[in-house]
Each structure stands twice: as C-alpha cells, then as structure tokens.
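Input structure tokens:
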C-alpha cells in the first residue's frame, strides 16, 4: 500500500503531465501549425516552445522565491515562540534560498549576455526539411 505522500506525488506528476499535453494541443490548435511530420517542422515546433518554457521557468522562480521568503517568516516566528524546537538555521536557509530564487532570472539574463554577447540569438532551423523520395 502506498503512503499518502507518495500517492499525492504520483497524482501531482500525472496531473502535470496531462496539463502539459493539453496545453501543447491547445497551442498547436490556436496557431494552426499542425506538424506535417517532417524533421524540419518538428524542429520548428520545438524551437518555438523554448520561449514559452523560459517564461514559465522565470515565473516559477519568482513564485517559489516569494513562497520561500514567506515560509522563512513563519519559521522565524516559530523559532521565536519555541527556540529549542526550531533551530535558527532553518529560517535563515529558507530566506537565502528564496532570495536566490527571486534573483535567478536576472542573473541568468546577465550571465547569458556576458557569455554569448548582447546581440546573440538562438539558432534556427535551416537546410533540408524533408527527404525527397522517402
């Protein structure tokens, strides 16, 4: 028999996978770009989804950072109420993790501009998109 936390984790994973599949289908239907089955069209579809993936990761980093900061405030309160039960390291660690999560998007943008230059662009699909005679 599965424990409650394993069951919840499995349900969360399955729900996330279903949402990903549904959102991908809705995005394809909205743009009208159904994949034609060629390698080039598949590559273009994957490349176009990277921009949205970056936006989701950025938003997730901000939300998780704010969540960690709020959790640290509650841990500080718990430490103040009962210092022997909650060690001071837990709220401090949560605070630093939250700050890091909030600043990750700006650090990644600056780091990318430092490594690749400010005029860098992503690679595109070019060349043969279909194989003739196949």
């Amino acid at each position: 028999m599965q424990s409650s936390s394993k069951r919840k984790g499995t349900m969360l994973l399955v729900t996330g996978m279903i949402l990903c599949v549904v959102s991908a289908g809705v995005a394809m239907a909205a743009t009208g770009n159904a994949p034609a089955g060629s390698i080039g069209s598949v590559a273009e579809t994957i490349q176009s989804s990277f921009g949205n993936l970056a936006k989701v990761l950025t938003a997730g980093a901000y939300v998780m950072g704010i969540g960690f900061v709020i959790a640290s405030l509650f841990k500080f309160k718990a430490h103040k109420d009962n210092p022997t039960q909650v060690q001071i390291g837990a709220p401090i660690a949560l605070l630093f993790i939250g700050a890091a999560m909030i600043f990750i998007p700006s650090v990644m943008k600056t780091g990318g501009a430092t490594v690749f230059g400010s005029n860098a662009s992503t690679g595109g699909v070019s060349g043969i998109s279909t194989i003739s005679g196949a």
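The mean pLDDT is 75. The two ends are 51 Å apart (CA to CA).
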